[in-house]
Amino acid sequence: MGSVVPGVAEVVRVIARDNGETVQVHGAEAARRLGLSTQAPTTPVYHTSASSRTIRIGNATVRMVHTSNRRRLQFAGEAAGLALAALWYLGRGNATPEAVARIEAAIGPDAFARLRSADMPAWMADALDAGAAVRG
User: Fold this and answer.
1) How far apart are CA 63 and CA 91, in angstroms?
2) Cα separation of 22 and 30, whole Å?
3) Count of domains for the chain
4) Residues 128, 100 contacting (CB under 8 angstroms)
5) Is residue 22 part of a domain?
6) Which residues span the domain enclosing 59?
7) What pTM was estimated for this model as a whole?
């Protein structure tokens, strides 16, 4: 029998754990995973609390981009963190009530409640409130 090769995300998680860093998937990938975009990044990109670097994992090249903005790394590795990354990526103009409703449907009510507890800019909190108002 052949061996099972771990995926890029799993290897990145292990590297982060071993180096004591926090990593979060880039917002473009988060938006894709949540059904907000169909564009798939050609190179996996992660935000990291450590230095920026490029690593090879099997045949994949992975970019690790340093961010000093701790708000971007909140809830890293959780559904709420994925949603937060997607919202940062969408930005003020594209974080519509419809996008927020799609995020909530994708991550579920518990993770959405956790997302609402995040330290975020006012525009993002307003977008979450507007999404809640649409749902009733």
Assistant:
1) 22
2) 16
3) 1
4) yes
5) yes
6) 8-135
7) 0.90
